[in-house]
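ESCALATION

Customer reports they have been waiting on this structure for their group meeting. Please prioritize. Original submission:
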Amino acid sequence: MWRGGALSGARMAYETWGTLNKARDNALLLFTGLSPSAHAAASPLDTSEGWWEGMVGAKLAIDTERFFVICVNSLGSCFGSTGPASLNPATAQPYRLEFPDLSIEDIARAGFETVRSLGISRLDTVMGPSLGGMVVLAYAALFPNAARRMVCISGTAAAAPFAIALRSIQRETITSDPDWAGGNYPPERPPATGQRLARKLGTVTYRSAAEWQQRFGREPIRADMEGRDPFSSEFAVQGYLETLARRFVSAFDANCYLYLSRSMDRFDLAVHGDPVAVFRRAQLERALVIGVQSDLLFSVSEQQAVARFLEAAGTPTRFAPLPCIEGHDAFLVDIKTFGDEIGAFLSGEEKPGRN
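Update from on-call: job pushed to the front of the queue and completed.
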């Protein structure tokens, strides 16, 4: 592991779409944001809707008739890859806080080892949004010449103070919940109150104020969600946050969330050297960097800095600061706008870059 310690018998969960060609040079590796699984899109083996449905598939922006797409569940997560909720083979008990310190670099290496296990020596493209946008930068730093192209979406070369402050409060809501029990909670009794508050706080920053206004205004909460105490939720936006928060508690392990969240705070591309030199060593042929102008969590100026490092390294780079209203989560919502950028880049269509 990047910060010390080791995992024995670690496993990675992944899904694939499309077919690897004979030259084994059409693979696209996709990293996820903090909370999704590897199920990016429906497939014959799993027909349920994926988190990037409409983006990954035949004749879509990430065209599975052309690319062999591999989406990995992040190391440290709780959807099949080894993480704090997994059994420690040495004790036959969940790792919990005995899981080694997790870094963005570890997530990148786990993806790299997954690709190697499939007999792929060089990717066509490595891509990721949000946390995944940070992971692709670590991938380029750790594994020079391991990918021809890179797509970094709403990521950053180093966590900004605003994001660090926000995530620290989210983690504190979990660790302050008595049910967290120092990380030793039973699966049937997670620190649900802390997790709910952490998810609500995060969700507020994943979108923009303009989008909240457009979507909810001052619409009242549904009658079936009204509470009885004098300070219970009154507005639709509160009901929406509560619904998402409850869904998150039922799906995601609290310790996994803590580890992944902290790994984002600690990431700094500069620890690998001057970023321009890092990208020069990476030997990327082309890059696409996408930001969203309404993103509170990862400011568009952070993506612009990444694009400038790449250009200074001699990598032909397209920087796309998109005017989407949906904030950080726009890549999950505005599939048309993001698909146009990603599809044009992957098909080799030339667009003038923006600095």
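Sent to customer with the following note: The longest strand covers residues 123-129.
Escalation resolved.
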